[in-house]
Amino acid sequence: MILTSDAVARSMDYGHEIEFGVFITPSNQQPQQPVRLAQVAEQAGFDLATFQDHPYQPAFHDTWTLLSYVAAATERIRLSPNVANVPLRQPAVLARSAASLDLLTGGRVELGLGAGGFWDAIEAMGGTRLTPGQGVDALGEAIAIIREIWSTGERGGVRVDGQHHRAAGAKRGPRPAHPIPLHIGAYKPRMLRLTGRLGDGWLPSLGYLQPGDLGRGNAAIDEAAARAGREPHEIRRLLNVGADFADAAQIDRAVELAIEDGIGTFIVAADDPGTMQRFMAEVAPAVRERVAAARAERGTAVAPRLGAAAMALRAEALDYGAIPESLRATAVEPGSWEYPERQHTYLRGGAPGVLLRPTSPAQVAEALAYARSQGVAEGRVPLSIRSAGHGISGRSTNDGGIVIDVGALDRIDVVDVSRRLVRIGAGATWGRVATVLDEHGWAISSGDYGGVGVGGLATAGGVGFLGREHGLTIDHIEAVEVVLADGSLVRASRDEHQELFWGMRGAGANLGVAVAFEMVAQELGTIGFAQLAFDASETADFFERWGATTEAADRAVTPFLLLGGDQRGKPRLAQAMIAVDAAEPEGIIDHLQPFAMIAPLVGQQVVQTRYAGVIDNAPGGAHRGQGEPTTRSALIGSITPEVATALARFLDAGAHYFFQIRAMGGAIGDVASDATAFAHREAKFSVIAFGANRARLDAAWDTLVAPHASGLYLSFETDQRPGRLEDAFPPATLARLRALKAEVDPENLFRDNFNVVAGAAATVIE
Fold first, then answer.
1. What mean pLDDT, rounded, does the chain reach?
2. Which of 67, 123, 296, 534 is at 20 to 30 A from 702, Cα to Cα?
3. For residue 265, what is the enclosing H or E element?
């Protein structure tokens, strides 16, 4: 086909990738036939399988039931009603049904919507007869409810007070696996305008159109889109066509529809396997090839992934066009579907300019090169590294900058069974690690929460439930694979890059991006896990007894203690979680008995479980942190009467809402202070407090707790005032880290996580 200049001038090619779907009759005379046809369509290479929705038609399957069944019988092909009968599909229920099926299929659902047309049959089924104008209004209300149900990042319930569809505080969710597109079956002007305002696609049938209707429809949609602040390319143009399009003679017509009328998806009505196969073998490839050639000749731009509203949210400081090609498809930008689920961390709210999600060390290097090109080293743009986003300090997100999320690097492999040597990707979570290792009867001490990422904990320290018996998490590391600031991948161990190996175990956030660790697990069978609640009204005495009992306990016992804010008129309560590495019930009780004698017990529960049963406790879902976390950390020695009194007075000050004492000592102290960058091996306890007010928390902490501290643990510290680095690292350790930093990161690329470079100005990007 040769395009004339007139054709080019009136062309409406929106640059959408050309796709092909099939329109299958949901007949129930042979119940499995529509399912088999969908399977044939998938095998033939169709992108989409669709089914008409006429709930009043007894000769048809219920379309949503059929879609669910077909979803289970296929693996790749996307699925959609063509189109859903909204007058008989309550929109809030339809939204939840679509989201559920999308989650179950990994994002294979699309949603065609229709305002209704066979009103006698709809009314006979209990639906309300609407005029054409009312039908348009009702569909608009339905779309509002559907979109609000999916908007789980918004606060409060869904409230849409429509004339035909209402929602009065309905709970939001579930959130679909991907942004389910809404394709609207529209022909008349009002429906076309609604499509331009609210739709993601226009889905008419060629058989119902008159010559020129596509052009007029596109123009009406584009005008409505512009008035709504949208770009025309944000609405995909789909078209139901007849089985005659499977004839090679129709290739010219299909190409013309794509180039001149903007059709991006052709949906062929076919209930014959041969027709489907012939179309995908002969017609589809030719159409794609010729459309690509015509676009190349004319310089047609590919439709952007994001719409105008989303593009307006991009960070001004970043060049999005410079994002490496290998990272572009998975990058998450403001305004994209994934962004609300990924922008925040566990405690910190963030609004990064882009999240890059590498799947290999080479892509990590590309992400770092991009970060350097955007001015990270000069301090113009913040850079954060994320493994799972649970870090208490919240430094794995930022505002307006770049986040490199290594969550995809999550493989867990056994390297050497005889040595219990495992290789763990930095993006794995400790809950999953615990579950995988438990299959071998192994474990690695790893904090107290399964949602924590391996990369963050294994470069900082790792004060966990097995710490007194097996040491810090970093004490299990045999080697670490690191992408340095210059993009080079190095393996650091006791034999290779020894100084880097030293630094990565305790201050890794300053030195590079850890992508994998080789670690030695410990044999571990059934353990005891106790949860005890105490009346801690005599707080100073309670703390002193707690400290003495902990230090006297066998190394097989690692207790954590936490207290919340005081409640008016109620005694102060302390809750203990105590891990006991003992298999027999009698042994577990013997280890716990001294703790039970510390103060009056008001609650107790003791279970036998596996380590995975303790640590694999993360519920999943997106992080919803808000603002900046307000925490303080201290490492202390024995809880002497003076220390116990100071801790009790801190609680009396009421500046906290969460206070925790984690036991250290034991095996943690067996390691020399200069063996790793985590140097405070003499500490017996790690003390942490969370507060709602920065000034109040700091004032109480600085006065009462800090004077008794021998150091702090940066993973639990969010105070950015000068002096925290000196608290975290003794002078010799800090000097050694600064020398190492100058060698491996001379440009100071990694600066947004308690930067060891001298000078307060380099610590945090404002």
1. 95
2. 534
3. strand 263-269
CA distances for 37 relative to 21, 32, 93, 122, angstroms: 12, 9, 28, 28
Q: Give me the phi and psi of 684, to 5 degrees please.
A: -100, -20
Q: What's this model's pTM, rounded to 2 decimal places? A: 0.89
Q: Are 453 and 388 in contact (CB under 8 A)?
A: yes
Q: Is 552 exposed, middle or buried (0-12, 13-18, 19+ CB in 10 A)?
A: exposed
DSSP 685: E
Report the length, in residues, of the chain.
766
Q: In the 8-state DSSP scheme, what is residue 424?
A: E
Whole-angstrom Cα distance, residue 279 to residue 248? Answer: 8
* One-letter amino acid for residue 210 of the chain: Q
Distance from the first to the final alpha carbon of the chain:
58
Residue 616 confidence (pLDDT) above 90: no
3-state secondary structure of 69: helix
Among 412, 287, 297, residue whose Cα is nearest residue 5: 297
Q: Give the pLDDT confidence of 72-90 residue by residue, as tens digits.
A: 999 999 999 999 999 999 9
Distance CA(53)–CA(115), nearest Å, equals 12
Q: Give CA–CA dist 592/482, Å, rounded.
A: 42
SS3 content of the chain, % helix, strand, coil (to 5): 40, 20, 40
Which segment of 18-22, 153-157, 415-419, 696-700 scores lowest on mean pLDDT? Answer: 153-157
Pairing mode, strands 78-81 and 402-405? unpaired
Contact by Cβ (8 Å): 174, 152: yes
Q: Is pLDDT at 6 greater than 70 in this prediction?
A: no
Q: Residues 480-537: pLDDT tens digits?
A: 999 999 999 999 999 999 999 999 999 999 999 999 999 999 999 999 999 999 999 9
Tokens (6 digits) for 190 = 């009002």
Q: How far is 397 from 403, CA to CA, in rounded Å?
A: 6
Domains and CATH numbers, the chain: 5-298 (3.20.20.30), 320-521 (3.30.465.10), 527-609+630-717 (3.40.462.20)
Q: Which strand (E) or helix (H) includes residue 535? A: strand 527-535
Q: How far apart are CA 641 and CA 161, in angstroms?
A: 63
CA atoms within 13 A on the CB side of 589: 3
Q: List, for residues 269-295, the tens digit of each pLDDT value.
A: 999 999 999 999 999 999 999 999 999
Helix boundaries (H) for 513-584 = 539-552
* Confidence at residue 11, expressed as pLDDT on a 0 to 100 scale: 66
